[in-house]
Structures are given as structure tokens and as C-alpha cells.
Amino acid sequence: MTPVLINGRPLGVERNGDFTDANTAPIPGGRLWTEAARAWIDMRAAAIETGVAPADFVPAGPASSARSVAAQRYFWAHRPPPAAVPGTSNHGWGLAVDVRTRIAAAWILNHGHRFGWSWDEGRRVGEWWHFRYVGGYRPRPRPRFPHLRRDERRWVVEYDRLHAAGRDLGRRRVLRSAMRTRRREIYREAQRTGWDVGQRRRRYRTLLARTK
Fold first, then answer.
1. Which domains does the chain carry?
2. 162 with 172: CB under 8 angstroms?
3. CA atoms within 13 A on the CB side of 57
4. Is 201:191 a contact under the CB 8 Å cutoff?
5. Residues 196/190, Cβ–Cβ less than 8 Å
């Protein structure tokens, strides 16, 4: 049983320091309990959107997120800085990250609560770099066709809905025309500067499936 309860719900992996592909997920530069990883990835994406460099918003090192019991013993034997008793660390539950930069720390201090991340434990032990996931994050549903541009996504979603219902043939023709024009634009751009730019290959295939 994990030691962290939020609204009666335990957070983290079932056994401290025991990580598998089933109970954790990768984050850039590390690994976390699955729910904490989703919250971290969404938080990091939000930070990058506001101008934080991706390289600034990562764990400080390979043992700075999910941490094995062996790694906990190492940190315990090499105090200071403070370390939890091996087998009790929030890193061992897959719930904590020690960030590399003060830029990331400042961003999380100001915005982390929106994603379920807190500096409460870092404040208690005097570590500006230490943050833990305390739960409560409810991710927004991921949009369908995230590789498409906003107008392309709108066309595709509307077309699929009308096509499935067998309705409004005229509107479907208008949408097919818009998608066909964009598909041709993508093709021309790809011939000049390549397919691996701006999700061109996936966008082209999605539009082609509805206009061929």
C-alpha cells in the first residue's frame, strides 16, 4: 500500500522502487507512475507553450524521477542533501521529480497546482528542485486527429459525422473540395521541402482517405 492518500485513494506504484511498463510510463528524461506521468507530460507541454525551453523542463538526472530502492540507498548513504529512508521515498512511489533548472521550478511553483504537482515536500526539506504529484489532475480529452491543423480537423470531423449519418450530400461535397485543395497544397510543399515537416505525411494520408 502506498503512503499517499488523496480523497481516500492511494497514489503511486504498489511496491516502492518496483517499476514495470504496466505501472509506470516514460517522461522526457525519466519515468513516473502512470497518472503522474500523464500530468507531468501535460504540464511540461503547457510550460513549453509559454516559452520554457524543453531542455529546461526535465529531471536533473537518471535517478531524479522514479528511483529504485538501490538508488535510494545510495542517496541515503551520501547525505546531505536530505534523503528519505530507503523504501519510503516519493521517488520510489513514482511520484516525485527533482528538476534540473530553477526555470522549471519557478514555472511549477506558479502553475503546478493545475496539474496536481506540489512543492510541499520540497519546501519542508529545503529543496527548491523537488516536486511531487499529489493527485487530482483530470486531463482534458485529447482532440481527435491531433496531427491535423485546426481547420483540417474541423473539416474531417464534420465530414465523418455527415458521412456516417448519410446526410447533406451538398455540404459533404464542399468539405471534400476543401480537403482536396489542402491535400494538393501539402503535396506541393512536400515536393519542395520534404514530407517530414509539419506532420505532412499523416495530414496528407488523412485527407486522401476522404477525397480519393
1. 5-133 (3.30.1380.10), 150-208 (no CATH)
2. yes
3. 22
4. no
5. no
Q: What is the largest CA-CA distance in the chain?
A: 73
Split the chain (212 residues) into runs of 10 and give each run's mean pLDDT: 67 94 96 97 93 96 96 95 93 97 98 96 96 91 86 95 94 97 97 93 96 91
Describe the crossing of helices 200-208 and 169-193 by its angle, rounded to 10 degrees: 150
Q: 134, 128, 132, 66: which is closest to 103 by C-alpha? A: 128
Predicted local confidence at residue 7, as pLDDT: 64
Look-up of cell digits 517522461:
27
Position 206: which residue type? T
pTM: 0.68
List of long-range contacts for 9-16, beta carbons under 8 Å, 24+ apart: 9/135, 11/35, 11/36, 11/93, 11/95, 11/133, 11/134, 11/135, 12/36, 12/90, 12/93, 12/94, 12/95, 13/93, 13/94, 16/69, 16/87, 16/88, 16/89, 16/92, 16/93
DSSP string, 132-143: EE-S---PPPPP
